[in-house]
Each structure stands twice: as structure tokens, then as C-alpha cells.
Amino acid sequence: MSSSRATLMQVAERAGVSLASTSRALHGTGASQAMVDRVRAAAAELGYSPDAIGRSLRMKRTFQVAFAVADIGNPVYVEMLTAIHEVLAPHGYRVVVMSTGHTVASTVDLVRSLGSGFVDGLIVSPLRTDDALVEAIRQAPVPVVVIGRSLEKQGIDSVSTDSAAGIGQAVAHLVKIGRRRIGFVNGPLDTTPGAARQRGFDAATSAPAFAGNHAETERAENFTVAAGLAAARRLLSRTPASGPFDAVVAANDLLAIGVIRAAGELGLSVPGELAVTGMDDTEIGKVFQPSLTSVSLGSAERGRAAAQLVLDRVGDVVEPAQQIAIGPHLVVRESTAPPTELPASKEKSAR
Amino acid sequence: MSSSRATLMQVAERAGVSLASTSRALHGTGASQAMVDRVRAAAAELGYSPDAIGRSLRMKRTFQVAFAVADIGNPVYVEMLTAIHEVLAPHGYRVVVMSTGHTVASTVDLVRSLGSGFVDGLIVSPLRTDDALVEAIRQAPVPVVVIGRSLEKQGIDSVSTDSAAGIGQAVAHLVKIGRRRIGFVNGPLDTTPGAARQRGFDAATSAPAFAGNHAETERAENFTVAAGLAAARRLLSRTPASGPFDAVVAANDLLAIGVIRAAGELGLSVPGELAVTGMDDTEIGKVFQPSLTSVSLGSAERGRAAAQLVLDRVGDVVEPAQQIAIGPHLVVRESTAPPTELPASKEKSAR
DNA sequence: GATCGGCCTGGAAACGTTTCCGGTGATGTC
DNA sequence: GACATCACCGGAAACGTTTCCAGGCCGATC
């Protein structure tokens, strides 16, 4: 926190050359070798390092990209952040983490705040979307990439995934291993992921392949473990006419963990008596006990794609909006298996 | 991504007043009401929003703070990040996430890069520290707050916690509930937390209160679940002369989860046959099955304190370096309990 | 030998903002 | 009525950098 930093002007004086030449020498273009050596030496002596603000002002580039999510506590977003960081850092870009807040209005505010130009681009994964937000994004003074649903018609760059199809994969898997009464623990329906996943569940359970089985939805207040626990308690306290639930599809790994905890409370073994699937294929799901069968939506991959898209855009390539889709795929682990033939004792068999 | 943004100059012209007055009117000091109204109107018409870069250049303030950690994948750092964000955002500060890398050299580079002045302050939680880093921090052109060990003698602001004492609390708890052969799964000893926690374990297990019991350390490659799993396999494959391990202290919640998984592999029940403690009291530990007894080091609290410290410092209050200490405390959950009296059937001695 | 082209350099402008400073008009006080 | 005080306004400088432009030098070409 010592002496104020050296400026380019000071380096120029020290080297006895002009300001322009100094800049060129350090920047590396159109300067003689002698000049470069001289300036480099002076810069080293003074411990010069270029001022990012001055440079930004002149170049109209901040070398910063913002990443905005509602809840950085959700491991999915952390994975995205890591991936984004890995792509951007080698290009000299910094990542600013922002919070969208939980309402769409606050997200609109955030997008508008890009007007102050502290950032060259934005990657945002909004929980909720509406026309105002779409419009704000379209008007935004810097490239914006949305991670979430495809916004092709709206002409906005997006990296999406078909989470509805992902839920379909989970349901298909459960049916295939012999589950007949499937509950669905979803998040709020007015969120983009909540709506998509509900569509996926409804479609999968009204398809011919599902005929004769039972399906039922319970809605959690949000996408956290606590909400999942509460919702699962409600769901599992009901018993369909055809018999107790033997599987639960959760819209989220966190919700799934809540479901498993609820099952534990009720003395239901997982996967023996209750198979549970999650979604997002997070690290926490991998290490949970039992490890979580989960639909991977390629969080890291989506993060990387979004970052690459922003990078392309700030390199002022003006192209029509691009849509990148990442296919979901199911990763089967311990939390799903064919139902155990229960011995009369109803105690859990060997581990 | 439409028309280029309006500048203050344009607002001034539109309002028919000087640039200086425009700035004052918007900034709110020393302008008549009439002037304010007039300028506000013009600004609104043009959709003006002030340019952060121009402002930064002039004010020598970026309204950004960097938070640097080795591994943002570790939930502890996510909790800190959240807390930091919550403190800083209301003051108009943005948070830039940076990676220190795993070597001390790359951390030094990062601190040096502050010289480019893109940020008003830095909060860093380095895994490893050496004299070069301390010196770099002391020379840094902006306030730096270290989360980790106390750096009082070095004259650096720090927010620390006595993790050694925390390990002591864990050991005391285990002894109290009747555990006699305690393993310690630690991370690398050349890291700051690794070293401190080892000291804590060694001190606790060589204290009179521990006399007659067995203690043994196994070192994991890093602080992740996978490393914890591997280390626990090694540890539990050994059997002390006095009998098998009945408790494991892990230096970290992630390591603890690895330990529990290893116990599962070996058919050991937790907490019945093996009690396990973690450290950091992370969200994932709370929801794990069994939920984790863990030593809280107040991650969120430390984040908040560090953020507040940076905030004070950028408000150019020049005071001697401050040391804030957060006391550790044990949170007992399911993963520790008195040993179960094993029915004769279970082959305990043979293992 | 004059001209042209190419390489290199220095001067100066520009990016958008805040703030110092001097000036003007109005108001209040003796 | 003169003078000090005050509130407000406009001009201009400054923050640190990059880049346009013009000019100087040198070698090569005709």
C-alpha cells in the first residue's frame, strides 16, 4: 500500500522518449528493437504496470465479463462459474460475479446497469424471464448470453439444454427398472426450469409407454435441499390407490437430496424401496450416500459454451444470434435400482 | 446491443447547460433545484447512465473488490463469496472472482497484478504463504485482507480463526463420547490450514486428557472428497495394536465425506462403529447422510468481516493493521455418537 | 542526383468523468 | 447605499492510456 504507482508518462521521461513511443514499445508493435529495450528497461526500473482504467477508457474495452445468477449457493452455478473462468482467464478476461436477485424486475435492473459499461459482456442464467427482460437484453449495450431456455425467436444468444427431455430420460429409466408409482418433486412453476421440467414430466407420464402407472407432482418452494425435504414429506405422506410411491424424480440434485433425507425419516430405503433421481449431475450428488442417479445437463459444458460465445461477440463478429444446445444424458448411480423383493421382515438387506 | 450510449456531454448540450453543472446536478451537490430538474429530464430523455470507466479514471476508485481463492469448488469459499457479496453490494461494490492457483508463486503474481488498478481492494485466502507473498501483499497498491492465519507481526490485515483449537474441540468431543483410537485425515502439510490443523491434532492428542488413547495421522493429497476417500482407505486398512479405529477427525468437511464413503465401502457403520468429524460446517455437511458433526470456523462470518475490513480501508482510514479472530465451535450432528455396543454377531475384532 | 517509399518517432487528440477555480448575480447587513 | 456573504454556474484541467497524423531519416530506384 506504498508509493503511488508509476505512470506511462514517467516511464517515457525516464527513457527519454515520447509517450507514444513508450506505449508502442510496450505494446509491441511498430517500434525498433533499440526503443523496445530502452523502454523495457525504464519500465522495469520503475516497476511500471499499465493502468487498467486508463487503458479501458481509451480502448473501450474493460476485459471483464459478468456472470449473473440468482443463487451462487447452488453448485450448478459454481460449476458454470468455474468453467467460465477457465475459458475467459487465458484471454485476459476477469469475471465479475453478480446476483440477479429472485425477481425478474431485479434482473432487468441488472441488465440495464450494463449501461455503465463496466463490463464487455454478460452471461446470465435467469430463473424467471418475461418480455421486459428479453427487451432489456436486446437493448443491452454489450453482448449478453443467456444460459437457460433457447431464445432463438427473440434473437438472443443462448446456451440451452432440453431439460424436459432430461426428465423424460429419468422417467424412462425408472419405468425400465420396474418402478410404477412415480412422484415428481419440482420447483416453482413460474421459473424457467420449473416450467420446462414440469412439461417434461407431464409429457413423459402421459406417453403410451407410461400407461397404467401412477404419476403425481409435488411442488417445492424453491430449488434447495430444505424445500425438497419439505415437499417430499408432503408427497410421501400420501399413498396412491395403487400402492406407495416407489420412485421420485426430483427437478434438481438439491431437491433430490431433500427427498432422500425425507425417505430416511420415513424409514424408506433408497434405492430399495424408493428410487430417486436428480438433475444437474453436481459434484455433491456424486459423493452423496447413496450417490445420485442424475440427469446431466452439462453445466460445465454450458458454461464453457457461453463463455466462448461472449468471447466471439466481443471480438465484434456481428452474426445472427446463435443458439447452442447441450443434450441431456442420464448418469445412473446408486440411488436407482430395480425394487428389492422385500422379505417379510421388511428390514434392509445386506449393504 | 444498439446505439452507442449517451455521454454526459450530450446530456449537457441537450439541457443547454455546462458539463460541470450537469455533473453536479446528477451527483446531487451544489446545484439549484431548477438545474437538477432540467438535467434529470435531459438525462432521462437520452437514457443516460454514467460511464463507470470515465468515473473511475477521474475518481481513482473502481468500486470493485477482488476475491481470490485456490478452488472455488470448495463450498467454504462459496459461503465466503456469498457473505462478501452481501456486504459489498449495498455499498455499490462489485466482486471480481479470481483464482490464486495452487502455488504460492501464482498467488504472488496475482497480488502484483493489483498494480494495474482494476480493483480497490483484495480479499485473499491463500492455501500457502511465504515471505515473498507477505512482502508482495505489504507492497500492494491497494488494501489487502487475508483470510487465514493471523498476520499480526507482518502488519497485514487478516481475519483468522484458530483451527488448531477447533481440531482440539473435535478430539475432546470424541474422547468424551468414548472414542479411544482416533485417526486424523489431514490435507497437505505445506498448506496453511494443513499445518495448523496438524498442530492442533498433535497438541490435543499429546495432552494429558488423551493419555492412554491411540492417535494416528494420514495425509490426503488435497482437500477434496476424492483425496479424503483415498486417504481414509489407507488409514482404515491399518489396525492399531489396541484395536480398530473408532473415530476419524477430518481436516475438512469434504475430506470427512470421503472418510464416510470409505467407511461405507468397508462396511463400517457411521457413527456406530466409526465416528467422524469434519471442519468448516458447510451446507453440504448439514444435508449429508449422516449429517456431519463439524467444527464451524464461521465461513460466512469471516467473509463478512473481511469485506467490512476492506470497506473501511478503501474509505482511507489509515490505521494499524487489524486482526480479527473468529472463534471455532463444534456443531454436533449425526456422524458422531457414543459407540454402539455391538451384538456378538458382528465380527469386530477380526477385521 | 532527385524522388519515392518505408520505417520509425514525437506531438496531439481523444475516451468520459469529477472538481478546482474564478466569476456573476442576488441577498443580507451595517 | 456600500460592502461582505452566499449560492450557483461555466471554463478548464486532470486522471492514464492508445492511436491518428505528420514529419524525419534512410536506402533504394529511376
- Reported CATH architecture of the largest domain in chain A: 3-Layer(aba) Sandwich
Q: Helix and strand string of chain A, N-terminal first?
A: HHHHEHEHEHEEHEHEHEHEHEHEE
Q: What is the terminal-to-terminal distance of chain A?
A: 59 Å
Largest interface: A-B, 55 and 55 residues
Helix and strand content put the structural class of chain A at alpha/beta
What proportion of the residues of chain A form beta strands (DSSP E)? 15-25%
The CATH topology of the largest domain in chain A comes to Rossmann fold
The figure for the number of domains of chain A is 3
Percentage of residues assigned to helices of chain A: 40-55%
Mean pLDDT value of chain A: 93
**What coarse outline of chain A follows from CA principal-axis ratios?**
elongated
Low-confidence stretches of chain A: 344-351
Task: Give the spatial strand order of the biggest sheet of chain A.
Answer: 2-1-3-4-5-11
The major β-sheet of chain A equals: 6 strands, parallel
SS field, number of helical segments of chain A: 13
User: Total strand count of chain A, please?
Assistant: 12
- The CATH fourth-level homologous superfamily of the largest domain in chain A: Response regulator
Radius of gyration of chain A (Å): 26 Å
Q: Could you name the CATH class of the largest domain in chain A?
A: Alpha Beta
Quaternary structure type: homodimer
